[in-house]
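hey m, so remember when u said the tokens were messed up on ur end? i reran from scratch. heres the input so u can diff it against urs
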Amino acid sequence: MDEPVDSKTVDPSSVDRFPKQKAFNLGDVVTDAAKILTEEERTKLEEQNKRLVTPFQALKLEQEARKHWDLFYKRNENRFFKDRHWTTREFSELLAGEDPAAAASSSPLAKPDNVERISVEKKLLEIGCGVGNLIFPLIEDGHRDYFIYACDLSPRAVELVRKHNLYDERYMKAFACDITTEEVFQALPEASLDIVTLIFVLSAIHPEKFQSTVANIYRLLKPGGVVLFRDYGLYDMAQLRFKPGHKIAENFYMRQDGTRSYYFAEEEVSKLFCQTGFTVMVNSYIHRRTVNPKENIDVPRIFVQGKFLKPEQT
């Protein structure tokens, strides 16, 4: 159950810079304003600075990023993340029959009777596919207009995708690669994709590699192609919970399992994509408070969510 977010936690001084997402859940606050910290929250952030991750340890985490994600999927396999059935609700571009550059309200096409009848003229890439929590719900729900490519840094995650009962190379292909490097172009040519999803992925990458990652995505997309983005927002509950010894750099942290997480400002995300050549379609914070009384859970979350267009060639 979602409850309203207190508007006092949002900075009212910020002015709208780009069109915002609509609110998809009851109680969502959609804004370009960052959360206003309480004194207690400011103290928590200051405490994190008392003991930082050492430069040696930070370098080792970067060098062993693939290993840590492989170990993560070895421990958890497909049990950790829930299937993302919400993606077609919040990103209508993923619905069957949608035009990626002009998706608004849509009417999905009827589900095909069999795979052989599928038209796969358009192409989608999920970056950071994990075990397929986005792509397989799309297939289950009949959104098969795209040939789906799925990549992940972890070879173990890709292996789990390939073992899924819905995996079929007639309409999808999964492969391991480091999206921050030129490696992806060994599997995909430039200007070949209609949609790229980047959902809770960029935050796991070192901030120094954000620009190269987005630049690679720009090269992969056709003119008129779209990036669908969601990630952790600045001052999200998870950021505030980190103890001393986990902070690597500003807004960048190490988890207990050696994986890492960055927390984005909305303006920072817009600037990153604009500097690469994208046009901002929508971009905003989503403040969402999820309450489950039965399990005594009251979790205020903050995400940054946006859509970014590679302009048509002039």
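this time it looks ok to me. The first helix runs from residue 39 to 48. if urs says something different then somethings off w ur setup not the seq
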